Amino acid sequence: MFRRMMLLAAILLGVWCVMLLSAGSPPADAVNEAPKELVFVPVKIDGPIHDPARHTFWFGPFAECSSVLDIDGDGKLDIAAGRNYYLAPNWTKHADYRDGAATNGPDVDDNYEGTMDVNNDGRMDVISSGWMLKQGIFWYENPGKPGVKWQSHTLLQADGLEGMVIGNLSGHGAKDVLVNFFAKKAGRSVIWFEHLDQAPWFKEHTLGPEGVGVIHGAGIGDINGDGRDDVVTPSGWFEAPQRPTEQPWIWHPDYQFAGFGAAPGRPGGAGLPILVYDFNGDGLNDIVMGSDHGYGLAWFEQKMENGKRSFVQHWIETEYPTFHTMALADLDGDGKPELITGKQLLAHNGGDVGALDPVFVFYYTFNKGHFQRHVLSYSYLEPYFAPGYNGPPPTFAIGVGMRLSVGDLDGDGRQDIVVACRSGLYVFFNKGYPSRTRGRNPLPDRDSYPGNVNWEAPRNAPPPVKPGR
Ligand SMILES: [Ca+2]
Ligand SMILES: [Ca+2]
Ligand SMILES: [Ca+2]
Ligand SMILES: [Ca+2]
Question: How far apart are CA 162 and CA 388, in angstroms?
């Protein structure tokens, strides 16, 4: 029996290897190869009604964060965005399933959200942060049945919050919560919450000295390759000690991010999260940061020379602003992630630099530190705000908001992209590469249109006789 199982395992492993070798070959991002383009179909799930008389516009207010989780336990991924959730497969809307995320003037009080099973009951819960009416980080307990309000639990009550990053900081599970404050304040340090196996589920830890690393943007990843995830900020990184919940974390001010064109020496905020990955494939993890409210997207190449670590900054983009959030996910199925990001549509209620520049959603393939931009959506904004403009609103002007999500929402094995922004909630359904085959022509035959002239027919040929005339 055991030998038969081993044989089966060997066969399965072989099949898996063949699949890996054949998938996505050649890679879409191979240097000197023509880029291949995945097909994405954007679908609008929900959005604000454009009704200026009632002070709701195509540009909101609307929730700007989304989470992807199986809410009802049917095995299909659903979407939460602010106060509402939408059940697969028809994206049936359930409004006001939780408190928080209240609409306040042009904004929704939800600047970041995420998902994890906080209380280990097998049901995914939602974590969200607010900065106006309900200040702090709260988790909402999935009750496992529809029509029941999700109970709110306070993780942290504080002002100046940008949001959080979920990851493995304790070393014993990926459910710890790194807190991100956008605002410095007396007595404020970078803090994190260790996830516990029982209520109250979280224990607070201080990561660094007062003020150090306290700025808009944060991320989690293993910088020094010792197997323990570290904490990255726009101005340096905290090294995880051997016992992360007991020993002090070590601060390394090895680099400084600022938006493109920012005043020299002036630190700048980054989007949330900051991403850690080996973007040039040299075995050392690098960092990607986008400007939160200025221009530019950059990667910081990690270098090691004679035991000394340094980071070299490379711009990926300098002409695009407001990379407020991003994610890594394997879109093309080659086993390697792509970088997904875009602009926050009309951040700070249109007060940001470049607010009326086109709004965009991009993804990037990368190889050896070369980043190739791919356009998911790109829309002009300025005409819609021209003085006297009174025409129809744009149909699809999509940004990434403040937290985008990725998941296989239609179960076809490909990763889809969910964005919530001021103009609505959208899914970019990933349809894979174009088939390049001619299928059934779905359109009505030419002759079925009234008055169609068969212009291809020879001039001197008699006109075709149409039946019934
Ligand atoms: Ca579901
Ligand atoms: Ca739960
Ligand atoms: Ca580490
Ligand atoms: Ca690297």
Answer: 36
